[in-house]
Amino acid sequence: MPTNLSNLRPPKGATANKKRVGRGMGSGMGKTSTRGHKGQRSRSGSRMMRGFEGGQMPLHRRLPKRGFTNIFRTEYAVVNLDRLVELGESNITVEILVKRRLVGKNDLVKVLGDGDLKSPLTVQAHKFSKSAHEKITKAGGQAQIIGGPAPAPEVKKEAAKQTQPKKQKK
Question: CB-hemisphere CA count at 13 Å for 149?
Fold first, then answer.
């Protein structure tokens, strides 16, 4: 029988009736409401945290901490060459990429070298991978690096003040 909208059904076992607990002994789920008799899980409000191992030191605390997150990293929105070719433009700027929704308006753009170039392209971006730069120049195009966010101003340390030696008491 062909499948169409009039005979669609969920697969077997995909739907289950809601388990109604605490509704009398005849239901089979009365009295203790499937919680058993005593113990931590039978008490009201008992929800152990994720990874709880019954009081034993949990795995996520037994393993050592590693690495850190560099808060000064610069993140780039990546665009591959094959996506640039699909645009059908010979001069590609960040504004065009934003308009075509390949990157966000506040993103820094990095061009990666996945894909082939047959026609020359002039591409403006904040950063290029080596392979992307080589492919663009080999095809007769230009890879123009544009400025990113303004660099943070350097804080000059004041020269150490010349202090005169203290007079010694006699």
Answer: 11
Q: Which CATH architecture has domain 76-145?
A: Ribosomal Protein L15; Chain: K; domain 2 (3.100)
pTM of the model: 0.56
Looking only at the bridges linking them, the beta strands covering 108-112 and 91-92 are unpaired
Burial of 96 (0-12, 13-18, 19+ CB in 10 A): middle
Average pLDDT over the chain reads 90
Domain boundaries, the chain: 76-145
Residue from 86, 95, 91, 131 nearest 112 by CA:
131
**15-74 tens-digit pLDDT:** 999 999 999 999 999 999 999 999 888 999 888 899 999 899 999 999 999 999 999 999
123/113 Cα distance (integer angstroms): 12
